[in-house]
Amino acid sequence: MRELSVRATAVHESSTLAVDSLAKRLKADGKPVVSFGTGEPDFDTPQNIKAAAIQAIKAGQTKYTPAAGLVPLRHAIAKRLLADTGVEYEDAQIVVASGAKHSIFIALMCLLNPGDEVIVPAPYWVTYTESVAMAGGVPVVVNCDESSNFKMTPEQFEAAITPKTKLLILNNPSNPTGMFYNKEELQALADICVKHDLYIMSDEIYYGLLYDGKEFTSVAALGEDIKERTIIVNGVSKSYAMTGWRIGYTASNKQLAKVMANYLSHSTSAPSTISQFASIEALTGDQSSIKVMHDEFEKRRDYIVERMNKIPGVSCIKPDGAFYVMMNMEGLIGRTLAGRVINNGDDFAMAFLEGANVAVVPCSGFGAPMFVRWTYAASMENIKEGLDRLEKFVQG
From CA 71, how far away is CA 69, in angstroms rounded? Predict the structure, then answer.
């Protein structure tokens, strides 16, 4: 048989989904697995949102919608962005897709030409580099470490730019680190983008989950020059516990939005109509559920960070937002745990799952091989149990 697509076969499986799949399989086999893998709120979708979906079905709202999404949904998104970030967009600048991951993919397909370079600070969400490559671009990884709170400095950004650079991808707050760029830090990066005429894709999916009273700034709010070059990525999955509803969106300049809508019209078309109506309610209805989740996540974050930093051989820095902790496990390198010699996060994650029935995500897929990611989008009971097992596990 003839060979398959070289571009498609070069795509790697998502490490987060791979760990979650293995954990679920072990659980199905009767193993007492505690999972800290997939970044998914453990809260149920709020009742008013579910009711809106049911009402849409009863009202016969089950037909195709425009490729870029329902106009009332795009209007609701624009109003929510204005209310929460102070950035004003027209409905025609909003494009709805089947989840924020899909929004990223479509935007990259419409932005990049073969060989275009895309700067990605590491640690990064695993899908960024894969999506860039799938779109024919070249990911240029800038390594950031704990000394800078995993954030890229303006000097690092400047040094990575070449004549082929077209785009910077910034996740703020970040998956997997939980760190965020404040207004001054964003301004420095935005100035460089304008200076070199670069686009910036600002993935703001966790913008509602910032702790310790920190205030979020959207990079698009820093002036018209940078707004014109910005592609905001967001969705309803994290803030409204709607991961399975698959609604993401972008806000960008009109030219890019039009091209993305055209691209969608010949690929997936619009997402589920019922999910779109539910999302209108999420964005325009009662917002109190966000604070309930936010406060619970903050409490869990404080607990997991304090406990983890008391366990010999591992450590973490306190994240600013999202619901992840990057655990540094360099203190375990060279040790044998559960019959495995620990050389990196991949070894530790497999040993921990096999030896203690705890699933965490190795961060090699995030550009940080000496770390593993925990999510605190898990019940406090499971967090306590997981850390109890960690404590016993590292004691050998």
Answer: 6
Peptide bond into 41 cis (omega under 30): no
Fold of 59-284: Aspartate Aminotransferase; domain 2 (3.40.640)
Tell which phi-psi region holds residue 93, choosing left (phi > 0), alpha (psi between -120 and 50) or beta.
Answer: alpha
Domains of the chain, residue spans: 6-44+289-394, 59-284
Q: 202 with 170: CB under 8 angstroms?
A: yes
Report CA 372 to chain centroid distance, whole Å.
16
**pLDDT tens per residue across span 234-285:** 999 999 999 999 999 999 999 999 999 999 999 999 999 999 999 999 999 9
Token representation of residue 271: 């997402």
Q: What is the DSSP letter of 14?
A: P
How far from each other are the two terminal CA atoms of the chain, in whole angstroms? 50
How far from the centroid of its chain's Cα atoms is residue 304's Cα?
20
Contact at 8 Å (CB) between 233 and 201? yes
- DSSP for 282-306 reads HHHS--HHHHHHHHHHHHHHHHHHH
Q: What superfamily would CATH give domain 6-44+289-394?
A: Aspartate Aminotransferase, domain 1 (3.90.1150.10)
Question: Both tokens of residue 378?
Answer: 């898990």
pLDDT digits (tens, 9 = 90+) for 323-380: 999 999 999 999 999 999 999 999 999 999 989 999 999 999 999 999 999 999 999 9
pLDDT tens digit sequence for 11-67: 877 766 666 777 788 888 888 999 998 788 999 999 999 999 999 999 999 999 999
pLDDT value of position 24: 81
Contact 152, 142 (CB under 8 A): yes
